[in-house]
Amino acid sequence: MKAAGSLLGRTRAWLIRSLRPGAGGTGHVVGVLALLGLATYMFLIATFPLSLIAETQGLRQVFAIIGFVLWIGTYIYCTIAILRGNRRKRTIQVLALSGLGWSLLLFGVFGMNWAAPPALSFSIMLLCLSGKARGFATLACFALYIPITANVFHGDDIRRVLEEFALSTLIFYSIPRLVTFARELEDTRAELAGVAVSEQRLRWARDLHDTLGHGLSVVLLKLELVERLSERDPRRAVEELREARSLLRDSIGEMQTVVAGMRDTSLAGEVASARTILTSAGVQTEVKIADLDLNSSTSQALAWIVREGATNVLRHSDSTLCEIRLKAEEGRAVLELASNGPSIMTKRTPSGGHGLRGMRERLADLNGELQASGQTGGGFLLRAQVPLSGSGKPSGIRRMTAAT
C-alpha cells in the first residue's frame, strides 16, 4: 500500500511538472505532447483487446491477451522511463529490445492485427539504444518485419503496411523525443542561468580578495611582529600597532568601497548585466534606453528595479522574450520591463527586498510608483515611474538587442 502511494505521488508530481510552464515545470509543449501520448495509449488499450477477443478462440485467445498485456506494459513502462530521462539505463534498453521482439513474434503469429505494434516498439528501441547496438537491432527488425509482412499481406498491401510502419515509427519516435528535448532545454537554461550568477559571485569574490588580501596579510605580519617585540622593544611594538591599525582602517575603507560598488550599481551597468544574464539563460533581450538626466538616487533605484525584474523573469517565468525600456513621460522617468511569460513577484529575491513590496518602498522614497500587471494577449509588465530631476527630455535613444 505504501509503495502504491509512493508511485502515485511520484506520478502526480511528474504530471504536474510536465503540464506546468515556468521554472518549476517543463512547459506547455510537454503538457500537450504528454496528453497526445496518453490519448494514444487509451486508443491502443481500447482497440486491440476487442480485435483479439473477436478473432481468436481458445488457447490462442488467451495467448493473444497475455501477449498484448505484456507488450503494452513494456511499451508504457519504457515510454515513461524515456520521459523521465532514464532511456540509457541498461534495464530500459533490455525491456525495449524485449518489447520489440515480443511484438514481432505476435505479428508473425496473429497476422494483420499486430502490424502496428512493431512500429511503436521499434520507435522505443531507437530512443533507448545508440551506436552499433541500435544499428544491429534495426537490421534485425527489418530482417524479420519485411518477410512477415510479405507473408501476411499481398500486392499493394505490402507497400501500404511498410509505409505505415515508417510513418508510425517517425511519429512515435518524435513525440517522446520532443518531450525529452524540451526538458533538456529547460535544464540547460536553468544551468546557464546558474553559471551566469556564479560568474558574478566569483567576480565579487575576486574583487574582495584583491582589495583586502594584501592589506590583511600585512596587518597579520605586523601583529606577529608586535608579539615578538612586546618584551624586547615596547616602543617599537607600539609603533607597529599604530601602523597595523592604520592599515586595518584602510582595508575597511576598501571593503566598504567594494561593497558599495556591489550595492550601488549604475543603471547602465545593471541593464548590461541583466541583458547578459537573460541572454545566457535563453531569453531574447531587447534594450531601448533613452538618455535621461537622472540623479544618483533615481539611477540607483531604477537599477534595483532592473535587477529585481530581471531576476523575476529568470527565476519565476517561462519567458522567451524580455524588453527593457526607459523613456520620459510628462516629467517622469518611466522604466518598463515587459516579458512574454507569467511572473511571480511575491517571493524574496536573492538580491534583497521582498519582490514588489521592496521595489515599491524604494520608489516611494523618491515619490515614485510601481505597477505590475499582465499584458493583453499574455505576458507581464513591470512599470516604474520616478519624477525627473532635470527637464526630462531625452537627448538620444540607445537600442540594443541580444538573442541567442
TrEMBL record:
The chain crosses the membrane at residues 29-50, 62-83, 95-116, 136-153. It comes from Amycolatopsis xylanica. GO terms for cellular component: membrane. PANTHER family: NITRATE/NITRITE SENSOR PROTEIN NARX-RELATED (PTHR24421), SENSOR HISTIDINE KINASE DESK (PTHR24421:SF63). This is Two-component system, NarL family, sensor histidine kinase DesK. Keywords: Kinase, Membrane, Transferase, Transmembrane, Transmembrane helix, Two-component regulatory system. CDD domains: HATPase_UhpB-NarQ-NarX-like. One of its GO terms (molecular function) is phosphorelay sensor kinase activity. It comes from the Bacteria. Gene3D superfamilies: 1.20.5.1930, Histidine kinase-like ATPase, C-terminal domain. Pfam families: HisKA_3. Residues 201-266 form the Signal transduction histidine kinase subgroup 3 dimerisation and phosphoacceptor domain. The keyword Transferase applies.
